[in-house]
Amino acid sequence: MALDKTYKLVPGTTIFDSEQSAKGYHLNQFCMSLMTAENRAAYLADERAYLDAWPLREEQRRALLDRDLNAAMREGGNIYFLAKWGATLGFSFQQMAGSMTGMTEEEYRAMMVGGGRSVEGNRIDHAVLEAAHAPGAAAGHAAITGAVFTSHVPAIGAALDHGKTEEPYWRPVFEGYEYAKAWERENVPDVVFLVYNDHASAFDQSLVPTFVLGTGTSYPVADEGYGPRPVPDVEGDPDLAAHIAHSLIRDDFDLTLANEMAVDHGLTVPLSLMFGDVEKWPCRIIPFHVNVVQYPVPSGARCFALGRALRKAIESYDRPLKVQVWGTGGMSHQLQGPRAGLINREWDNAFLDRLVEDPAGLARVPHLEYVEEAGSEGIELVMWLIARGALSDVDGSGEVEVKHRFYHVPASNTAVGHLILENRPRAEEPAVKE
Fold first, then answer.
1. Could you tell me where the DSSP H helices lie in 137-204?
2. Which one of 40, 252, 288, 418 has the fewest CB atoms closer than 10 angstroms to its CB?
3. 6-132: which CATH number, 3.40.1440.10, 1.10.700.10, 3.90.1640.30, 1.10.3720.10?
4. Max CA distance (Å), the chain
5. What would the DSSP string read from start to end of 290-355?
6. Residue (of 294, 228, 260) closest to 26 by Cα position
7. 8 A C-beta contact, residue 84 and residue 35
8. By three-state DSSP, how is residue 261 classified?
9. CB 401 within 8 A of CB 421
10. Of the residues 152, 243, 246, 265, which is catalytic?
């Protein structure tokens, strides 16, 4: 079932949702550029040249040149951003609002003095509403085909990039992913929803968001101090991401939406492990960052619940896409303090057991246990619960099959864990014979 967007039917109203945001991203960023005196002067000196320096569609440029705010809104503009453009041109807010209603500034001001526009005659037409909710032809929809869980150790990326995969130290690690690469070749998804944590690459302490959904068209590879990894940039899926944002936020998950951000080893190492050395990643990727660096971090229960809501969001998307959800990070490791180097094989393998057999119970494990038993950075494992919550056996509507399991110590400072679960509908019970 498609998401309810009845707000689109309110007459004379454009709601700035995630779809409009994606459509108008560069238009609104252009408006933001006018917050300095230098840029305002440059714009007023040669409007067309200034606009041509931005990757705007011609319809967006024409709306601005024609001073057509309604057209700018249709093209994804938001009134708070466009107000900065209007201020640059010397327009008052009432002058801008009046222009969208066919009134002069004086006429609009007089209307407001008289009590404003009446809501009567400006509500949704019930005939239009009923037509919008009438049953339509069934359409294909997206489906989650499986989940991948893997560590995202930065040294693995360095070993790949510097041709060390056959060295005795590294060979056992990469042999553990040979099955995964073959499985991905046979099960290439249209989209990967990739859960990871940024490692002070895209987000520093000026901004510490808990959940960040990548809604952009592409994401460059971050320079983490050694130069960017020599791997392809990431192609996003802004349409599906906008749909997921709409669904998750309506389900009360507070997300930060990022149209631009660099992605670091937390995202690129899993891609390399699963897809190998490629010129272009074979599918689109939606990055989903979780803060597990600065406390408070989200609980396992919150992550598991988010995964369940994510499945609902993906399966309500009315395009027939194959989607995989990946949970990355961990396993046990500690990178700081006198306990640096901590590894707990027994706890890690018990975690893998419970992830398959008892994910709801595993989701109740408190942060203290992760830190004490798996090390301070072992808390990354809560991200695996997002991917696990997105599988259909959680609510009994389907089944999962373990396709691959791998565990190895060490990879640099970390225990490596890897699991592939295939998602499938529950087999129908055989009919009872009379």
1. 154-161, 171-175, 178-186
2. 252
3. 1.10.700.10
4. 87
5. E--SSSS---HHHHHHHHHHHHHHHHT-SS--EEEEEEE--SS---SSTTTT---HHHHHHHHHHH
6. 260
7. yes
8. coil
9. yes
10. 265
Catalytic site residue 141? no
Q: Is the peptide bond before 296 cis (omega within 30 degrees of 0)?
A: yes
Burial label for 193, CB within 10 Å (0-12, 13-18, 19+), is buried
Which residue out of 333, 367, 408, 418 is catalytically annotated?
A: 333
Tokens for 224, please give them: 């983490």
What dihedral angle (degrees, nearest 10) is formed by the CA atoms of 264, 288, 332, 175?
Answer: -70
CATH number of 143-425: 3.40.830.10
Give pLDDT tens digits for 11-60: 899 999 888 998 999 999 999 999 999 999 999 999 999 999 999 999 99
In the annotation, is 265 catalytic?
Answer: yes
Residues 44/32, Cβ–Cβ less than 8 Å: no
User: Which pair of tokens denotes residue 94?
Assistant: 């009432």
Does 157 have pLDDT greater than 70? Answer: yes
Amino acid at 427: A
Intrachain domains 6-132 and 143-425 with the same fold: no
| Domain ranges, ordered by start, for the chain | 6-132, 143-425
